[in-house]
Amino acid sequence: MRGRTRGPSPLPERAARLWRTLGAAFVILVFVPPLLLLVAGSLTEPGLPPAPTPQLVPDPLSTTGYERALDLGGLLRASLNSVLVAVVAVPLSVLVASLAGFALARLAPRVTAVVVAASLVALMVPATALFVPRFAIFRFLGLTDTLVPLIAPALLGTSPLYVLVYYLAFRALPAELYDACLVEDLSPLRTWWRVGLPLVRPVTAGLTALTFVLTWSNFLDPLIYVYDRNLFTLPLALRSLSLLDPTNFPVFLAGAVIATVPALVVFALAQRRFLHHGD
């Protein structure tokens, strides 16, 4: 009598769910309490001395900190400037990095080895070492005191790391897939867009989130290139708020909440792509 064929064991799936639950619990325990204190502090009435102990529910509750942050710190205009930079720089950076990574994955092995080695050398160069030559170039082009220097690095994929990540992702795809595209007479550009990119969506989601956070929180580049207060981004506006009277700490915390929420939303959207990939 033949035995019944059993399906795949549910243990790996249960283990994966357990690790997801533990990871979510760790994130909640580490990151949620500071965020709650941040929001609670922003809802405190400005001008009052700080409470001797942290309060999750301030008494009285007040939104004056947000009103003053938008008014005194110019956070509304700064937020629009940051959104403009992010909306242009983030998609452009991901687009260029994915194109470069795809091209790198399709090059001859010897050429690929040289380019990868050059990228690793570029990663080892300190970012601060590039401030002076970059400033000289943008000043020569008359682009200082504009938002262009904040967007221009996206034309190079922002970082060689992004290109290498895409290179590894495209290289992991089966070679037969690319051969089938050649049989179908697909151009390299169409192969990248219609076949390659859809198969590396989790990588795109992760790099998009990372690029957005780095762009959104960029402080040094605006500090170097931007002088007009009307062109300040959120990090520079928050720096102005931090110079206020210490008793107005709710105003600064309100600005911090405004700057933090977009990054949290982007990370939440990206983690859904990671957690549900392959389900």
TrEMBL record:
The chain crosses the membrane at residues 21-43, 83-104, 111-135, 147-169, 199-219, 249-270. It is found in: Cell membrane. The keyword Membrane applies. It comes from the Bacteria. Belongs to the binding-protein-dependent transport system permease family. GO terms for cellular component: plasma membrane. It is a multi-pass membrane protein. Keywords: Cell membrane, Membrane, Sugar transport, Transmembrane, Transmembrane helix, Transport. Gene3D superfamilies: MetI-like (1.10.3720.10). GO terms for biological process: transmembrane transport. This is Multiple sugar transport system permease protein. PROSITE patterns: ABC_TM1. Residues 79-270 form the ABC transmembrane type-1 domain.
